[in-house]
Amino acid sequence: MVDRLPHTLRSDALDNRERILDAARALFSADGLDVPMREIARCAGVGPATLYRHFPTKQVLATEAFADQLRACRTIVDDACADPDPWRGLCLVIEKICELHARDRGFSEAFMSAFPGAPDVADREYTVKAVAGLAQRAKDAGHLRSDFVLDDLILILMANKGIHMRSTDTQVMASRRFAGLAIQAFEACPQQAPLPPAARLVSAAPDSA
Amino acid sequence: MVDRLPHTLRSDALDNRERILDAARALFSADGLDVPMREIARCAGVGPATLYRHFPTKQVLATEAFADQLRACRTIVDDACADPDPWRGLCLVIEKICELHARDRGFSEAFMSAFPGAPDVADREYTVKAVAGLAQRAKDAGHLRSDFVLDDLILILMANKGIHMRSTDTQVMASRRFAGLAIQAFEACPQQAPLPPAARLVSAAPDSA
DNA sequence: ACGCTAACGGACGCCCCCGTCCGTTTAGGT
DNA sequence: ACCTAAACGGACGGGGGCGTCCGTTAGCGT
Hints:
Chain A is an all-alpha fold. The first copy, chain A, has helices spanning 11-31, 37-44, 48-54, 58-65, 67-82, 86-103, 105-113, 124-140, 150-161, 168-186.
C-alpha cells in the first residue's frame, strides 16, 4: 500500500514519475480535473498500476502537479504586498491570479474547489491575512471602495472560473477583460451606488478586510 | 421511434409526462444538467423506458423543462427595453438574469452551453438586437461606459455561472453582490481606466452594441 | 556477468450510466 | 363487461471509469 523506506527511486521510476506529472499538468491544464486517471497514464506512456503506485489518489497527483502554480500564487501575493502602492498591488493580484487561473483550468478548479475550509494549503491563512492587509491599506489610501470585503475577491475568482473558451488565448483575453471590469468595480469613486451585501464565502474570518 | 399521430395522450401518460417534467425541473435546478436520466425517472416514479418514450434525449427534456425560464428571460428583456430609462433597464436585465441563473443551475448551464451558434432558441437574434439597442441608448444617455460591448454581458453571465454555493439562498445572495459589482463596472464614470479589449464571444455580430 | 528486488503494466472485477426490447398492465371506447 | 391498443417498466447488453492483483521485466549493486 505505502512505498517502503528506500527513499531512493530507481532511475526508470523517477523518469516515469516525471512523465506522469508532465502528462497530468498538460491534461489538467487543458481539460480540467475531470480527465480519467487512465487517460493521464496513457498519455504518459505508463500502465494504470504505475500511475496509482506513484500517486494513490487524484488529490495527491493534483497537489504535486500544481505545486508550481501554488508557489506562483504565493509569489504574486508577496510581490503585491511589497508594492509601495497598495491599490496597484491589489490590482496586480487580481490580474495575475485571474490570468493564472485562465491559463490552467485544472488549477483553477483545484484551487477553488478546495476553498471553504480546505486543509490542504497550510499557509492559506497567512495568504488571506496578507491580502486582507493589502486591501486595508488600499482602502486607507482611498483607492479601494470602503465596502469591499475579502469575499469579493473570492467571488471574482469563482466567477473567473466560470469563463470558459475553446482556445487558451481567447480564454486569457476574456479573463483579462473580466479582471479589468472587476478592478473597475472595486475602485473607489465619488458617485458610487451601494453594493448588495456580501455573502460569506471564507469560512471563519472575524473581520474580512 | 416517434409518437404516432393520435395527438391525444392517455390520461396516465399525460400525468406521467407532467411528473417527469416536475422531477426534471427540480433535479436540474438543484444539481445541474449532469443528473442521470434514470435519477429523473426514479424521482418521477416511472421506469426509464417511459422517460425515454416521452423525451428521447436529454436535450429535448431540458428544452421543455426550461420553457418557463426562457419565457421569463424574454419577459425580463422586454420589460427592460420598455423602461424609459435605458440604464435602469440594462441594470434590471443584469440583476434579474443573474438571479434567474443563480436560482436554477441547470438552466444556467443549458442557457450558456448553448451559446456560441446554438440553433435552439429561434429568437436569440431578436433578443440580442433588443439588448444591443438598449445598451446603445444607455450609452447615448451617458450612463453606460462607451467601450462596453455585448460580449461583456455574456462574459458576466458566464462568470455568474461560475459562482456556486451550497444553499440556493447563499447562491442568490452571492450572485446579487456579483451583479452589483458588474453594474458598478459598467457605469460610466469620469476617471475611467480603459478596459482590456473584449474577446469575441458571440459568433457573428457585426457591430455588437 | 549475475542475481535480487524494485518497478512495470496487462488484465480483472466492480459499479454506474446509457438506450432499447418486449412481456404485462390498464385506460377508455363500445 | 369486454376488447384493443396505448402506455408502462423490468431487464438486458454495451461501454467506460475505477482501483487492484500478479506474472513479467529490467535497473543496479556486487
